[in-house]
Amino acid sequence: MAFALLRRGRSDRVRGGAGIRLALPVGAGGLARTVTDPSGQPVDGAVVTVTAVTSRKVVHKGTTDPFGLFAAALPPGRYSLMVSVDSLQPHQESVEVTAGRGAEPEPVRLTEARALELPTAGTWLFDPPHTAIRFIARHVGMANVHGRFTRFEGGIRVGADMAHSHVEVRIDASSITTGNRTRDNHLRSADFLDVANYPYIHFTSNRFVHRGGSQWQLQGSLSMHGVSRSVALDTSYLGVVNGGYGQELRCAALAKAELHREDYTLNWRTMLARGIAVVGPTVKLELDVQAMYRSHDTPTPPE
């Protein structure tokens, strides 16, 4: 699918200001939207997905520009347009694209997302079979290295005010796995995690900050390799449900952060000079969490 070149310029069809000219390939039609938030401000980075109604094939997926603008040239036909952004209600509509017809950007004003039910105050323990701690690191000059930690424990102490809640996670550093035994042994060695001297990676939060909708930021301290640093986990809260084999009350969230190895005295430049080029200087960390509510009749998750 070839997309048209978007140009800004004067247009008699747009009153009092800059217009949009979309250079259409032969036989194509134009589709354009300007996306704003509930206060009318342009939304930069809103995800726009266009799906063909007949084939159900996604024909375009991209993001709005800093002015909230999205535009594309498409074959004629009927499409479903979806606009989504964190903490706001997604927008969906059906559109008809006509060959040879350009597109004046039509406005899309997003609304506040429906607030999810917050977890009940009390203690929630991570359920290891349904929780994953993953990381992605750039292999120097090559592809990404994907890995995870398989042994960990932790939980959430939810306060009556969610902002006063607390999260704690302890990870067995030796449980690191990337699918390559030689590399995993090297990552456990003194060149990297040095698990013999620093067997655990520990995170403890000190503040919950609500970013709007289902978005939170967990601010706290991450201790690894004998060093503690402040870390902010950008967190999407996924809600509460009665589920699982015992119909336990569960909550779920997805948290992400980017770590810099040299913050933890894992000296990337020194290792690179020695020819050790396993992973790059930054690591993306992701926690995909399910936690079970602890009560007198809730069983402790298995070891």
TrEMBL record:
Taxonomic superkingdom: Bacteria
Residue ranges occupied by any Lipid/polyisoprenoid-binding YceI-like domain in the UniProt entry: 123-292
Cleaved signal peptide residues: none
InterPro entries in alphabetical order: CarboxyPept-like_regulatory, Lipid/polyisoprenoid-bd_YceI, TTHA0802/YceI-like_sf
UniProt-listed Pfam families: CarboxypepD_reg, YceI
Record-stated family: Belongs to the UPF0312 family.
Protein name, entry field: YceI family protein
Source organism: Streptomyces catenulae
